[in-house]
């Protein structure tokens, strides 16, 4: 049994997603686990994003994003898009666009094409509430789960001062 916050929080179930962002010609993407549906009608998703991420700047400037669902076999993609300071992070992958113009990861299991409705503050993160413009399944398969990524996100250090 553990009372370690990082260990206990891993019992909260999340999927693993690549969030694609765009502003004009600029495209970028990052790995996110803190994504959830928050309304049926209109269909809304909430994405919790650290405002220090480069992706946040692009999201704020462009106001559009995609949520791309990773499959069990796509651990390496979660790792790749979870790195910061990578120049040309999008290179070597196939992307397309739907209505918003944000990049859709063509090999994802499914995607949601979104427009930011508004932001809300959540402690050290910002939560982007996003209206879904289009959604589509692209492949069959089971989603990768956050718990299966172990310590990939290096989040243990953020719990040290948590109350
Ligand atoms: C499995 C996993 C889940 C993550 N979930 C989130 C998340 O929900 N929100 C967030 O802001 N960052 C999350 N991150 C961290 C970002 O992906 C990471 O900091 C990334 O480098 C940010 O990219 P950028 O600075 O190029 O925008 C996660 C990372 C991993 C590996």
TrEMBL record:
InterPro entries: Flavin_Rdtase-like_dom (IPR002563), NADH-dep_flavin_reductase (IPR050268), Split_barrel_FMN-bd (IPR012349)
Keyword vocabulary terms for this entry: Oxidoreductase
Entry-linked PANTHER family: FLAVIN REDUCTASE (PTHR30466), FLAVIN-DEPENDENT MONOOXYGENASE, REDUCTASE SUBUNIT HSAB (PTHR30466:SF11)
Protein name: Flavin reductase domain FMN-binding protein
Gene Ontology molecular function, alphabetical: FMN binding; riboflavin reductase (NADPH) activity
Pfam families, sorted: Flavin_Reduct
SUPFAM superfamilies attached to this UniProt entry: FMN-binding split barrel (SSF50475)
Classification via SMART domains: Flavin_Reduct
Keyword Endoplasmic reticulum: no
Source organism, top-level taxon: Bacteria
Residue span(s) of domain Flavin reductase like: 9-153
Family: Belongs to the non-flavoprotein flavin reductase family.
Record keyword Oxidoreductase present: yes
